[in-house]
Design a protein that fits this description.
610 residues, alpha/beta, Glutamine Phosphoribosylpyrophosphate, subunit 1, domain 1, Rossmann fold, binds 2-deoxy-2-amino glucitol-6-phosphate
Amino acid sequence: MCGIIGYVGERQADHVLINGLKKLEYRGYDSSGVGIISSRTGKLVVRKIHGKIQNLEELLKKSPLDKGTIGISHTRWATHGAPNRVNSHPHADCSKKFLVVHNGIIENYQILKDQLKKRGHKFRSDTDTEVIAHMIEECYHGDFLTAFRKVISQLEGAFALGIITQMHPETLYAARVGSPLIIGVGKNENYIASDVPAILDMTDRIIYLKDGQMAAITKDKVDVFTFKGKRMRPKVDKINYSVDAVQKQGFAHFMLKEIHEQPKVFEQMIKTRIKGKKIILEGIGLTEKQIKGIDRIFIVACGTAYHAGLIGKYVIEAMTGIPVNIDVSSEFRYRDPIIDRKTLIIPISQSGETADTLAAVKEARDKGAKVISICNVVGSSLVRVSDGVLYTHAGPEIGVASTKAYVAQLGMLYLLALKLSAYHMRISSRERQKILGDFKKVPFLYRSILKTKHSVLNIAKKNSHFGCFLYLGRNVNYPSALEGALKLKEISYIPAEGYAAGEMKHGPIALIDEYRAVVCISPQSEIYEKMISNMQEIRARKGKIIAIATKGDMSIKKHANFIIYVPVIQEILSPLLVALPLQLLAYYISVQLGCDVDQPRNLAKSVTVE
Ligand code: AGP
């Protein structure tokens, strides 16, 4: 969840590090810090501060660092210890010879800390990370890698580490277990980072450090070893997206930019995945025989990806008749689910680094299930533990609130359902072709929705004062209601609940009065009339209704206070369209309230701890 960047080369390290850190801020933003080895004194020098990277930049202006060409830095999302200067990284040992940045959690840190304290070590912070610096101090007797290995063998949990030491002032050390870490390969300089955007404007050549690997990196050499000391030959990959992809390009926020990228994301998906009447799911890793043999599907995911999965359940069951179970990953992993070799597990994750989803996959694999992941990040941890992968290729998503990754996940689930439906027939081939035909219209329909965004802005202006929102939907749009509510609450901090509209009378109706806004997702559908009944019940209790309805639906005017129209599409595909107004509504309300849209409080982009 935190962001790491390290540098070794010929340039002034803190300049490079701050530049990279700014691009990682979406990963965590409660405090930050930078440490370098001074070329003048040969000693470690550190600056840390509470708050965003901007604070660190200002601190460095007031109190510049010495010249130094090797360093590490970190942007933090607090796990152990309050978000303040002392707990921010890097952390040093007693002698201040070793400096550590860390992403992840050291689960046995308290035991280690107690032992270290007994042996006389003095701790400055409340973090789990600091134990690592003190342990290295104890284990180091001239050979860093030997000490590093000894320390790592005692650590439990997930971690990505970056370390510098004045004992070896030309080498940047790194290791990973669980949490992601990459090495950027440059000319006369090299980097480590927790994510590609940090270094993309400096190099597009990346080594994905694997779990259980460590590295010793100088400005012109990268040595990779297993924790047992075996030297590995690392593969250098070329990143195929440009710096533009990780910049706002004139948009006020990354979220707004990413909302506008959705037509292109879909266009790309259609171009690469649909050839005539055929669906190409390259990467799926299943033979025709295995596809025919699937008798149950289990989807696991968190947050927005879970909502995409819920829609996937409706869609796959409707098109194939294969029963689909879905769990949030954190529940799946602890509840001993019934799965066997015929079960297909589909984890869905934008980042591919979500700790709970990775643990759920491990659980499923141990029980013999096949795993086909739907993922956005190439080479991520999830992809590495899957039998097959369906990449969503939505491009890097920087806004903490997921938008384009969500519709790409939906798109992939529709294509998967259509593909499976050729072997598990619950719909006729005519129906399949009709769905596919309408699916291809989505980029065009997205553009037409985006053209009407000003009407959503006006509605947001008139409704941002409400202290509570309820989102209601039915059938395939029940998960859309959950997703709409999640979007609003995470970026505006307004309490928002998503419900199946049929459940309203079983509790949520108690919330409704003139102070609540209710978003009713009511496109044309077989159960449209049921939604209208719900709306009447809300009006009778003076609730304000914002309806999302199908273009041309004039009768809804009688029932709703505000209407956002989406184009006509068959019901099963409608979650794809209603997603956009829900995202825009949340976005504009957040802007109205002056919230930090891209970096909402307490959140981080990828949740790499349990
Ligand atoms: C989405 O807006 C959220 N920030 C969050 O719910 C997210 O979808 C969830 O943490 C899952 O992340 P993943 O897709 O990277 O696994």
